[in-house]
Amino acid sequence: MARMKFLADAERCIECNGCVVACKQEHDVPWGVNRRRVVTLNDGVPGEKSISVACMHCSDAPCKAVCPVDCIYTTSEGVVLHDKDLCIGCGYCFYACPFGAPQFPQDGAFGLRGKMDKCTFCAGGPEPDFSEAEFRKYGRNRLAEGKLPACAEMCSTKALLGGDADVIADIYRDRVLKRGKGAEVWGWGTAYGRPEKKPAAQPGAKS
Amino acid sequence: MKSSHSKLSRRNFLLAVGAGGAAATAALVAKAPPTQIKKKEAVSGSKGYHLTEHIRKYYSTTKV
Fold first, then answer.
1. Does residue A9 sit within a domain?
2. In terms of residue numbers, what domain contains A106?
3. C-alpha distances out from residue A201 to A183, A197, A205, Å
4. In Å, how far from its chain's centre is CA A114?
5. What is the CATH number of the domain that holds A117?
6. Which of A57-66, A158-167, A176-185 has the lowest mean pLDDT?
7. Using CB atoms, which residue from A70, A153, A161 is nearest to B36?
């Protein structure tokens, strides 16, 4: 069984926010809710890095652990989804999530907090596939259509990778080995082993 | 004496109504299926991820 994951390649992201727009447009996300956003580290400093962040569909999701009504669940493909009919809008998941993925519509008076909304990996929700209720609550179910998340497919530089974890991990490893940097990230050695050190290129030599 | 007898029968009547109501509620709660389990069954029937030509094309574009 394939396991769905996102992977953001900071070397490729140009901070265009195309992924954010694609998500909002695809799912008709209400004003004030951002299921995905681009975060820039060291903004304005030479060498700044941007990454696209949304729900990372954790294998051991902390949001799921803290939900008092048990409305968050993981599908057989590793996609973390939630049931808006059960959600009480307490906000525990927001505090537990290290990525700030859970969002709460605040469109009422006195700080009214509605049902939690977050990235669904374009996999809909507990309602039947392609139903009106599913679209209204969770957005389109692209996975059932045989497609991948709109944000990843729309990414112009393919900095945001989404899909089968085995496939995208291979793609990312090939990129890192080709460009010769990126293997210093935490966990690389555990995942892929230490890359071979290549001798530095001679000045004037063609690569 | 007559008035105390009528009070007693009213009490019995109220007790009987209360017990009957409690029994009916317990029966309904026991019969009702847990909604959460029903919802999660719908997920297992979902089509989900399947490798299509569209997805193969996407994977190939990421290798550029």
1. yes
2. 4-186
3. 18, 12, 7
4. 22
5. 3.30.70.20
6. A176-185
7. A70
B contacts of A164 (beta carbons < 8 Å) = 49, 51
Of B18 and A140, the structure prediction assigns the larger pLDDT to A140
Is B59 touching A (CB cutoff 8 A)?
yes
Tell me how far apart the alpha carbons of residues A194 and A183 are, in angstroms, rounded to a whole number: 8
Q: CA nearest A84 in B: which residue?
A: B39
Q: How high is the mean pLDDT of chain B?
A: 69
Tens digit of pLDDT for each residue in A91-127?
Answer: 999 999 999 999 998 767 777 778 999 999 999 999 9
Question: What are B63's two structure tokens?
Answer: 């290798």
Share of chain A above pLDDT 90, in %: 77
Backbone phi, then psi, for A161, in 5-degree steps? Answer: -105, 140
| DSSP calls for A150-169 | HHHHH-SS--EEEEEHHHHH
Q: Assess if residue A37 is contained within a domain.
A: yes
For chain A, how many structural domains are there in total?
1
